[in-house]
Design goal:
It contains eight helices and no strands. It is mainly α and 198 residues long.
Length: 198
């Protein structure tokens, strides 16, 4: 994997390299709860709409388009929360997670079935699964929910595999980086969440 990643870095096209750089900036800024992260994320996702479509991952391309829209919502939501001093990290009760997971599995089966019949999707079920997980996780980030990082850890691991399998080793490396940052992000936000209770 490391050799493939290094060879991939040498042949990375400028759009992918820029998307990777902006993506890393996005996650690092969001980890520190900085609104500028939403701008970097929106720009990165705009590039990935095209790259995912070229990789025959239609759900990932649609997901990236959703991220562009959510970058506007995230900026607005975080700005509003800061203005009203309501930017505290909050959690979901377990029943919300159970309902969300059931919905993700159901929607993934439905969209995977459609993709398998109607498109040339390379990995219809995994493409669908990561899309629905990521849709939820992005909304949770915008709403400052602690558990967003746990959903991202799952999605990033799967997406690293998907992009590696489709010949985008640098992007696969990006998702492995995201996974690492998500682990750090969860620990950081959990620490902040516990401090809020004091």
């Amino acid at each position: 994997m490391i050799d493939t990643l290094l060879r991939g870095l040498a042949t990375t096209r400028p759009p992918e390299a820029l998307a990777v750089l902006l993506g890393v900036i996005y996650v690092l800024l969001i980890l520190k709860r900085k609104r500028l992260g939403w701008i970097a994320g929106g720009l990165s996702s705009s590039i990935y709409v095209y790259l995912a479509a070229r990789a025959h991952l239609p759900m990932q391309s649609s997901l990236q388009a959703y991220y562009v829209v959510m970058s506007f919502y995230g900026w607005y939501s975080w700005t509003r929360a800061q203005q009203h001093e309501a930017d505290r990290i909050t959690r979901w009760p377990p029943q919300y997670h159970l309902a969300a997971l059931a919905a993700i599995v159901l929607l993934s089966f439905i969209t995977a079935h459609w993709l398998a019949i109607e498109t040339h999707a390379a990995w219809p079920y995994l493409d669908s699964l990561t899309t629905w997980i990521s849709l939820l996780a992005t909304w949770m980030v915008a709403r400052i929910k602690l558990e967003n990082w746990l959903y991202w850890i799952t999605a990033d691991a799967i997406m690293a595999f998907l992009f590696a399998a489709q010949g985008y080793p640098v992007t696969a490396g990006l998702f492995l980086t995201y996974l690492t940052i998500a682990v750090i992000g969860f620990r950081e936000w959990l620490h902040q969440y516990r401090l809020q209770g004091r």
